[in-house]
């Protein structure tokens, strides 16, 4: 996220002040240290970048993991300030959930969701993210991930450990739920002015507060969500998160995707229907 703090200061200085207030210090210089700083910084950056794009109101908003908080803010369910406070609470709770660092995450190179589910079942792991074709993430104890890597290697596959601070979207994040719930309890969730879809259900959000809690320990259904949005008529996807990871996932899911500017990906179907637009908001690593 190099330069992201300067970008927020330039685009939305009010958001920089708000995220500093939510965290208690400027999180941008410390994003590489811990998810407690990275998460509120990513949310501030995403909100600022969306503001700068000047897009018409989208037909749907879809967030990847942490991006669900951004999606709720853009959809009018919560305010930007509430989104930053939720991100700060979520980041701190997740950072503290595994103090001994026994958990992590890993990417399965090939075989898709079926191979990942089989490998997870054999090694007491879970499928944490169904991100895109060829991009499925496992989570669990490091010792079990290492055992799964050996099994995969023996069959000609590969499990590659990710540089993350915990087993996000797995039962090892249960201790984080209390901290996030405390922050949620102080917020009045409102009806959306724009449909917000949840990556917990790959469908329109029906209980956004509960989806945020469930998202700590449930898989991110990003690929199924993109496919469901496409089936609902959405044809163009704009990624406003920092980096281009989520744009890459959309491009894998829809091979005909092409970039439009340095912060957006436009997904054009072979037979476009209408001019619907979905804002797909993700985090910089597409796993937290």
Automatic annotation (TrEMBL):
Give start and end of each Malonyl-CoA:ACP transacylase (MAT) domain: 4-272
What organism is recorded for this protein?
Patulibacter medicamentivorans
Q: Which Pfam families match?
A: Acyl_transf_1
Alphabetical list of Gene3D superfamilies matching this protein: Malonyl-Coenzyme A Acyl Carrier Protein, domain 2
Q: What is this protein called?
A: [acyl-carrier-protein] S-malonyltransferase
Q: Write out the catalysed reaction.
A: holo-[ACP] + malonyl-CoA = malonyl-[ACP] + CoA
Domain of life where this protein originates: Bacteria
The kind of enzyme this is, by top-level EC class, is: transferase
* MF terms in GO: [acyl-carrier-protein] S-malonyltransferase activity
């Amino acid at each position: 996220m190099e330069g992201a703090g300067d970008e927020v200061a330039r685009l939305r200085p009010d958001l920089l002040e708000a995220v500093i207030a939510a965290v208690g210090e400027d999180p941008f210089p410390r994003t590489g240290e811990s998810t407690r700083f990275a998460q509120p910084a990513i949310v501030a950056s995403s909100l600022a970048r969306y503001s700068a794009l000047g897009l018409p109101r989208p037909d749907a908003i879809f967030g990847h993991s942490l991006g669900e908080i951004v999606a709720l803010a853009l959809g009018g369910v919560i305010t930007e300030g509430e989104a930053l406070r939720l991100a700060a609470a979520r980041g701190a709770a997740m950072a503290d959930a595994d103090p001994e660092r026994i958990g992590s995450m890993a990417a399965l190179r090939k075989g898709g969701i079926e191979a990942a589910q089989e490998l997870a079942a054999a090694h007491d792991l879970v499928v944490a993210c169904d991100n895109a074709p060829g991009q499925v993430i496992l989570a669990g104890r490091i010792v079990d991930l290492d055992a799964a890597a050996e099994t995969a290697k023996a069959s000609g596959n590969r499990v590659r450990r990710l540089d993350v601070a915990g087993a996000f979207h797995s039962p090892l994040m249960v201790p984080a739920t209390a901290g996030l719930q405390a922050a949620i309890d102080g917020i009045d969730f409102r009806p959306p002015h724009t449909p917000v879809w949840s990556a917990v259900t790959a469908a329109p959000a029906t209980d956004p507060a509960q989806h945020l809690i469930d998202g700590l320990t449930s898989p991110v259904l990003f690929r199924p969500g993109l496919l469901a949005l496409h089936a609902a008529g959405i044809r163009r996807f704009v990624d406003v998160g920092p980096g281009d990871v989520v744009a890459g996932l959309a491009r894998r899911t829809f091979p005909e995707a092409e970039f439009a500017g340095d912060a957006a990906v436009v997904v054009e179907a072979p037979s476009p229907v209408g001019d619907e637009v979905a804002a797909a908001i993700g985090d910089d690593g597409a796993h937290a």
